[in-house]
Each structure stands twice: as structure tokens, then as C-alpha cells.
Amino acid sequence: MAQQALIVYYSQFNNTTKLAKLIQDATKAPALRLRVADSVYPNNMEATGRIYQ
Ligand SMILES: Cc1cc2nc3c(=O)[nH]c(=O)nc-3n(C[C@H](O)[C@H](O)[C@H](O)COP(=O)(O)O)c2cc1C
Questions:
Q1: CA-based torsion, 34, 31, 14, 10: positive or negative
Q2: Residue nearest to atom 2 of ligand 1 (CA)
Q3: CB of 43 closer than 6 A to ligand 1?
């Protein structure tokens, strides 16, 4: 049967990764994590927020 679903997600601090894995366990759909280069976002919420703005 053709694949019907693909889980595509982005996660900076890995919370969304945990949710994506739960969805993957439940659905058996493949998952694709979107990534940005390490230099794009700092590892700090306030500094990341300034970049978003
Ligand atoms: C700019 C910015 C704003 C955020 N605002 C909120 C918020 O309003 N409420 C919240 O619970 N978390 C907020 N967060 C925290 C993250 O969105 C939150 O921890 C999320 O679960 C991170 O997902 P990730 O671990 O998949 O990257 C914010 C983070 C950033 C960078």
C-alpha cells in the first residue's frame, strides 16, 4: 500500500521531537526532522526570540 503520512517537524529544544516520536509510535509513519545550521539560533530562548522578531 502507498505511504499515506509523513511526520515533518522542527524542534529546537527537543520537546517537539518527543511528541513526534509518540506520533510515530502510534502511526508507524516515517518522520523527517527539519534542521537549521547550528549557527542560526542560539541555545537560549530570549536570544532566539530576538532573532525571530
Ligand atoms: C521566541 C520563543 C518564544 C517562546 N514562547 C513560549 C510560550 O509563550 N510558551 C511556552 O510554553 N513556551 C514558549 N517558548 C518555549 C518553546 O517554544 C517551548 O519550550 C517548546 O516546547 C520548544 O519546542 P522544541 O523543544 O521542540 O524546540 C518559546 C520559545 C521561543 C524561542
A1: positive
A2: 49
A3: no
